[in-house]
From TrEMBL:
Residues 5-76 form the Replication factor-A protein 1 N-terminal domain. Residues 102-118 have a biased composition (Low complexity). PANTHER family: OS03G0429900 PROTEIN. It comes from Papilio xuthus (Asian swallowtail butterfly). This is Replication protein A 70 kDa DNA-binding subunit. Residues 90-122 are annotated as: Disordered.
Length: 566
DNA sequence: CCCCCCCC
């Protein structure tokens, strides 16, 4: 049996023409990406005259590839005329198809399958010119960003610059250089583009945020998901051939940046752990979000040195009120205090012309400025720490509180299950700032090792060991003077007197406080004693329970857990 | 080819 291929059909198709029901030979195939629904195969096809490897069996590109400069051949439907095992050989002597190999122009449309000996008709004027320059670009021939892949390098996108970084330089073992990057979007999707060295110089000034550009001839590669929160599996790199041209006509079809503003009140309830992006630099989880707010106050610029890198840093704290703004700020939590940080990718826009801005301005100017604001960055007490939030022992453990360098602070509603009366009170140095335990010289004088002095007098101080329980667990804690006074309900002086003169009352006191409930503020830190790591938890304060407040918290957590209004 | 996102 002989096989008739549609000789010349590839040339017609690749020049933008139409060829009805071409007969081709499939010389090979390659799985190119994805799996499941994204599975896609690239075929090497031959019409006997030319062969072409840019043929894809695709689904999602079908409706998107409406452009005139069809460079990828998409096989929508094929009928197998004969299996390869039967054909057994490559038909004809196909040459790899390229623009240059198309000598003759073809008509834009060519219907029924040509007879075997018909010479292919002349091709239409190529729509894609190797000497492409920006003046040739127009909306008529653009590709959706979502269709870009490393397997197809002849494309033009019409994209809006959402975001542009500053120029950054680097120097490492592999060399040095500079770069800037930008995030581009169109109505199909978004992609990160990076311009290195020469291209950095060439395009940096030209690229402006919010403008729309035609861009072509970049290299595409897989995006490293660790470093981007954009929804694209690929990212692009500018090359020496890259062409960028500002779109001067109607750009309204290209969407502008879409913000998904998170109100501050919602940020309060968000945890950076409900991660959108895993931050590999700090081993923690970060959440990237958009917010819009009125800057109510701004602190001076502070200079500090990063502990980890020794790098000199600058920071400036600003207070934003009400709803939320900016783009891609980083949510962090430090001892319960929430804050947003700007990343290098963060775009800060002043008075953006958005409905949300006007709404916020209206709110602020009409009393919002004077509103009582819940400060979600507040740290409780003088110690820093939890912003009023109560955690349980189970949560404290789950959050690994205390594992860090500096220790963590948290509040907890719990009961004293045991207090250790032994050595709970001691004679301390009478000096105001010195609370060192005195050594009894047995001669009416007491020696302070710290002050290197002897005193005839002393003051009583407390150092109380206790167990605290909550419904999820318990913890051995230590309470120093003031916290211990709160727990025992007596002053150190009173307790000292009891210890000296009324041992029974003293013992009774420690019995009485058993199962008393307090709101504790703890500082906890992992410490190592003879190679054994142990959590050292100190009571910073113990206050009686305000049950109205406790109830409100309970109601709030029931709501949060159940989603039901109570 | 970068890939840093820090501090209390």
């Amino acid at each position: 049996m002989s096989y008739k291929l549609s000789e010349g059909a590839l040339e017609v198709i690749m020049n933008g023409g139409h060829y009805d029901k071409p007969v081709m030979q499939i010389l090979g195939n390659k799985k190119i990406q994805g799996s499941g629904a994204n599975e896609r195969f690239r075929l090497l096809v031959s019409d006997g005259k030319h062969s072409l490897s840019f043929a894809m069996l695709a689904t999602q590109l079908n409706d998107k590839l409406k452009t005139g400069e069809l460079r990828v051949m998409i096989l929508l439907e094929i009928t197998i005329l004969a299996p390869g095992s039967e054909v057994g050989k490559k038909l004809g002597n196909p040459q790899t198809w390229s623009e240059d190999s198309a000598q003759a122009p073809a008509p834009a449309t060519m219907t029924p399958a040509p007879k075997a000996n018909t010479r292919p008709p002349p091709a239409v004027k190529p729509t894609f010119n190797p000497q492409l320059d920006s003046s040739m670009l127009s909306s008529q021939m653009t590709h959706p960003i979502a269709s870009l892949s490393p397997y197809q390098n002849k494309w033009v996108i019409k994209a809006r610059v959402m975001n542009k970084s500053g120029i950054r330089t680097w120097s490492n073992a592999r060399g040095e250089g500079k770069l800037f990057s930008m995030d581009l979007c169109d109505d199909s999707g978004e992609i990160r583009a990076t311009a290195f060295k020469n291209e950095c110089d060439k395009f940096y000034d030209m690229i402006e945020v919010d403008k729309v550009y035609y861009i072509s001839r970049c290299i595409l590669k897989a995006a490293n998901k660790q470093f981007t929160s954009l929804k694209n599996d690929y990212e692009m790199t500018f090359t020496a051939d890259t062409v960028v041209s500002e779109c001067m006509e109607d750009a309204s079809t290209v969407p502008s940046v879409k913000f998904d503003f998170v109100p501050i009140s919602e940020i309060a309830n968000k945890s950076p752990d409900s991660l959108l992006v895993r931050n590999t630099f700090t081993k923690g989880h970060i959440m990237i979000l958009d917010m819009i707010g009125v800057c109510k106050s701004a602190a001076d610029v502070q200079e500090l040195t990063a502990k980890s890198t020794g790098k000199l840093l600058k920071k400036r704290e600003v207070t934003l009120v009400d709803s939320s703004g900016g783009a891609g700020a980083r949510l962090t939590e430090f001892n319960g205090s929430k804050s947003l940080s700007c990343l290098s990718s963060t775009m800060v826009r002043l008075n953006p012309d958005l409905p949300e801005t006007h709404r916020l301005r209206g709110w602020y100017d009409n009393g919002g400025a004077d509103c009582d604001i819940v400060n979600i960055s507040a740290r409780s007490g003088a110690y820093g720490g939890v912003s009023g939030e109560w955690v349980t022992f189970a949560e404290a453990e789950a959050r690994q509180l205390g594992a860090g360098e500096r220790g963590d602070y948290y509040s907890l509603l719990g009961a004293l299950t045991f207090t250790f009366s032994d050595n709970a009170v001691y004679k301390a140095c009478p000096q105001e700032q010195c609370n060192k335990k005195l050594l009894d010289q047995e001669n009416g004088l007491y020696r302070c090792e710290k002050c290197n002095r002897e005193y005839p007098n002393y003051k009583y101080r407390l150092l109380l060991g206790a167990n605290v329980s909550d419904p999820t667990g318990d913890q051995r804690v230590t309470a120093f003077n003031e916290a211990a006074e709160s727990m025992l309900g007596k002053t150190a002086a009173e307790i000292g007197q009891m210890f000296e003169y009324d041992k029974a009352a003293y013992s009774q006191l420690f019995e009485e406080v058993k199962f008393k409930t307090f709101v504790f503020k703890f500082r906890t830190k992992m410490e190592t004693y003879s190679d054994e790591a142990r959590l050292k938890t100190t009571v910073m304060s113990a206050t009686p329970v305000d049950y109205k407040d406790a109830n409100a918290r309970l109601v709030k957590s029931i709501k949060a857990l159940s989603g039901v209004e109570v």
